[in-house]
Specification:
By secondary structure, the protein is an alpha+beta fold. It has one domain: 2-Layer Sandwich (Beta-Lactamase), CATH 3.30.450.30. The chain has 5 helices and 5 strands. It has a 5-stranded antiparallel sheet with strand order 2-1-5-4-3, sandwiched between helices. A hairpin with a 4-residue loop joins strand 1 and strand 2. It starts with 11 loop residues before the first helix and ends in a 14-residue tail after the last helix.
Length: 152
């Protein structure tokens, strides 16, 4: 490769691994799970063992269907407000949820992350920027469940 050429990483596995890496760097050992979703399907990219055990009898698809409504509410907020909607943060008694969306050239993907509710204060704005950077580098299509993932 020439000295000023840059490698565009478009491999789906690289994109999804890069997404997990930036999330893990932002939240550390508190990371519980990372999911990508589109308007019909979802794919787990990271699932901590204790969390996998806890959700083994939970209808995860039903839960993620609720998060999928964000595709609609994001558009609604963007039409109603003078600034762009960036992410959602919800707190539960034992864990917290972060959700954001990436979009380019008609492709859309949602990213849902769970972290332990341990009193840490995460910079979800900075995490949103990191997720957007991964999407810009690899392409939004590489972050969709359909891109080499399992349809759940």
């Amino acid at each position: 490769m020439s000295g000023n050429a840059t490698r565009v990483r478009s491999d789906v596995a690289d994109a999804k691994a890069a997404l997990v890496d930036v999330v893990e760097a932002a939240v550390g050992d508190s990371l519980r799970d990372v999911w990508v979703l589109d308007e019909q399907t979802q794919e787990p990219l990271y699932l901590r063992e204790d969390v996998a055990e806890r959700i083994s009898d939970v209808d995860v698809e039903k839960y993620l269907d609720n998060e999928r409504y964000g595709f609609v509410t994001r558009e609604t907020y963007n039409l109603l407000h003078y600034s762009e909607f960036r992410y959602t943060h919800r707190g539960f008694d034992t864990w917290e949820l972060f959700r954001t969306f990436v979009e380019a050239d008609g492709q859309k993907a949602g990213v849902v992350v769970g972290v332990d509710a341990d009193g840490s204060h995460y910079d979800f704005g900075a995490l949103t920027d990191e997720v957007q950077a991964v999407a810009a580098e690899h392409g939004v299509d590489a972050l969709t469940p359909a891109a080499g993932g399992e349809h759940s």
